[in-house]
Structures are given as C-alpha cells and as structure tokens.
C-alpha cells in the first residue's frame, strides 16, 4: 500500500515535471547540447539508442531513466567508452549506493571530446589547432514508491568549452518506472534534459534538447526473448526529413518527406534481445529516424540498425555495441561494471 508520505513524493515529482515542462515549452524549436541524446550504455545503444525500461543489474542504464536505479546497484561502479563519429571519443564513470531499504544514490561524470580542429580568424588566416569538449556532472536519487513503482531524479551540471568560448547549464531528468517481475513487464515515462543555461557562449541563449519519452519492455514467457518499444521526441510530432531528388547526386535538390507513417516511425525505436542465460544477452535494435536522417547516398543497409552483446562473469559485467549510421562512420561502445562488495569477496 502506498503511504501518505509516498503520495507526497509523487505529487512533488509531478509538480516539478510540470513546472520545468512549461518553462521549456516556451523555448523555440532550436537547441544545443544534443550530445545529451547519445547513450552511455552499450546495452541501450545495442537496442536502438533509446530505452527507458530495461531491467538489469547495470548502473550504466541509469543515464536513460533515473527510476531504473535501486538498491540492487549498491556499491556498483560503471565505466563506459564510445568511439563516436569522426574523431570523437566519449567516456565516463558512475558510482551507485543504496540508501536505506527503499532508496539509492549515484554520482557520475561524462566527457565528450571532439578532437582537435584547425582554427581561422575572420580573414582566413590559421590560428592553430584548438579542442572542443563537453562535460556532464550528474547526481541521481531514486526511491521505491511501492512494490511495483519507483521514481527517480537526476540533476546535471553541464560545462562546454570550445576554444576560448565556454558555457554552463543545469538540467534534470525525472522518471517513473513500473515493473512486474512475475510477468517480466516494464513500463516507464521520463522527462529529459529539463533546464536551461546559466552562462551563455555569447548573447544568444541555447535551449536544451528537452524531451518526453515513453517505453515498454516485455520478456516472453515461452521464448527467451525481451521485446522493447520506446517512443521519444514526443515534444514535437512533425518530424520531416529530406532526400536528394537525383540518384546518388550530392548536388541535386533535396525533397522534403513527411507523412503520418513516417512521423510515427521517426518517434519509435524497436529492440529485441535474446536471453539464453541470466548472465548473457544478445541484442539488435532499429531506429528509423537514424536511417532517414542519413541521405540516400550516405547510408547503406545497416543504417538505423545496431547490435550488441553483454556478459556477466562473477563480479564483472561487460557490454559491447556496434552501429554504422552511414557508410563513412562506424561507432563502437564498451561498458564495464563491477560491484565492489562482490569484488572483495
């Protein structure tokens, strides 16, 4: 039974979400900080890049939904590394600990490095190389509302440094997860990247890519399969894309593509996992938006698909994921997590 105190927690979370949502809704359609949409979990990357419902003993999943964290991650450390597009390298770490019988707390840091670039002044004279990077510091708290419901919040401090320019922002993720272990069914709703800048690059304010996401996951009783469906980008229904009018001609005019079906599919991510054992998974995902964002001459059959696998051996969990958004870029992600208590046994 949900106590009066727990009802108060729910009301506070709902009021915070409503307040932040109304504030962000008033911003225009452009935004920065899109690196926040890149997952840090190889498990999530393998099932399409967005998933807020996977239930697993892995602290790296908390980045997608703070309500996925519980006492089961007590004293767990998670590390992640991603070789992203071009010369970009992303990496981070997170530590979680249980708080009382029904709570959990975690802290983490994520670094997004974009390599070195050549700088030029307004006259075209080279000013030498410079680097660009983003940092995200985060603190997460979750609490069991009742036997099936859990709520969570993540607060983030964001710092960007591009040559001599810098900016800071504060953001929050709010999530609720319902999980029924008897039927192995999970459902979540998350409001992501709610907040704004506290220091601008210049006179222009850059909004955050705030989002509302819904998701469900279900493990089949007759087969060792878990199916996931995640809806994201729900703050804006229309999601057109453009393709070249000519056949593989980079100079041809672009044609706008938009229909009810494409708008719907560009908000959905599909994931399938094979679970032959409790400590092993094999996964594949499909993201239609990723595929259609790549113009015809920059994609191949694999665009939009991602694959991965994970294995837990004693105190260690390993994960790997691979995707090829377009012909010139293959992205690779690694995860490692371990529970300190088990490690010391």
SSE layout and pairing:
Elements: H1 4-25, H2 42-46, E1 76-83, E2 89-99, E3 103-120, E4 126-144, E5 149-162, E6 165-180, E7 185-199, E8 211-219, E9 225-231, E10 241-244, E11 254-257, H3 260-265, E12 268-277, E13 280-287, H4 288-293, E14 305-313, E15 316-326, E16 329-339, H5 340-343
Using only C-alpha atoms, the radius of gyration works out to 21 Å
Strand segment count:
16
Strand content: over 45%
Strands of the widest sheet, in order across it, are: 1-2-3-4-5-6-7-8-9-12-13-14-15-16
On the 0 to 100 scale, the average pLDDT is 84
Structural class assignment: mainly beta
The number of domains: 1
Query: What summary fits the major beta sheet?
Result: 14 strands, antiparallel, barrel
Detail the poorly predicted runs: 1-8, 10-15, 17-30
Walk me through the structure.
The protein is mainly beta. It has a single domain, classed as Porin. It is built from five helices and 16 strands. It has helices at 4-25, 42-46, 260-265, 288-293, 340-343; strands spanning 76-83, 89-99, 103-120, 126-144, 149-162, 165-180, 185-199, 211-219, 225-231, 241-244, 254-257, 268-277, 280-287, 305-313, 316-326, 329-339. The strands form two sheets. Strands 1-2-3-4-5-6-7-8-9-12-13-14-15-16 form a 14-stranded antiparallel barrel. Mean pLDDT is 84; it is low at 1-8, 10-15 and 17-30.
């Amino acid at each position: 039974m949900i106590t009066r105190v727990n009802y108060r927690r729910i009301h506070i979370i709902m009021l915070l979400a409503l307040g932040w949502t109304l504030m962000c809704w008033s911003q225009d359609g452009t935004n920065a900080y899109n690196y926040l949409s890149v997952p840090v979990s190889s498990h999530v990357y393998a099932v399409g890049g967005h998933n807020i419902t996977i239930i697993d003993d892995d602290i790296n999943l908390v980045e997608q939904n703070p309500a996925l964290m519980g006492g089961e991650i007590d004293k767990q450390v998670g590390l992640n590394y991603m070789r992203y597009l071009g010369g970009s390298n992303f990496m981070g770490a997170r530590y979680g600990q249980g708080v009382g019988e029904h709570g959990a707390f975690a802290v983490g840091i994520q670094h997004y490095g974009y390599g070195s670039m050549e700088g030029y002044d307004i006259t075209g004279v080279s000013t030498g190389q410079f680097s660009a990077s983003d940092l995200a510091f985060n603190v997460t708290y979750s609490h069991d509302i009742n036997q099936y419901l859990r709520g969570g919040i993540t607060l983030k401090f964001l710092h960007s440094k591009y040559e001599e320019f810098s900016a800071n922002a504060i953001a929050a993720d709010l999530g609720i997860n319902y999980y029924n272990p008897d039927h192995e069914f999970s459902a979540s709703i998350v409001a992501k990247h709610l907040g704004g800048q506290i220091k601008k690059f210049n006179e222009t304010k850059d909004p955050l890519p705030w989002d509302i996401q819904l998701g469900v996951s279900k493990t089949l009783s007759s087969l060792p399969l878990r199916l996931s469906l995640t809806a994201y980008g729900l703050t804006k229904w229309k999601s057109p894309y453009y393709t070249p009018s000519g056949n593989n001609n980079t100079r041809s005019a672009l044609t706008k593509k938009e229909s009810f079906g494409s708008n719907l599919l560009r908000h959905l991510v599909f994931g399938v996992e094979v679970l032959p054992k409790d400590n092993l998974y094999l996964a594949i995902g499909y993201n239609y938006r990723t595929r259609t964002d790549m113009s015809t001459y920059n994609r191949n059959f694999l665009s939009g698909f991602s694959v991965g696998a994970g294995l837990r051996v004693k105190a260690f969990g390993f994960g790997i994921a691979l995707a090829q958004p377009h012909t010139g870029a293959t992205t690779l992600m690694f995860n490692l997590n371990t529970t300190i208590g088990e490690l010391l046994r």
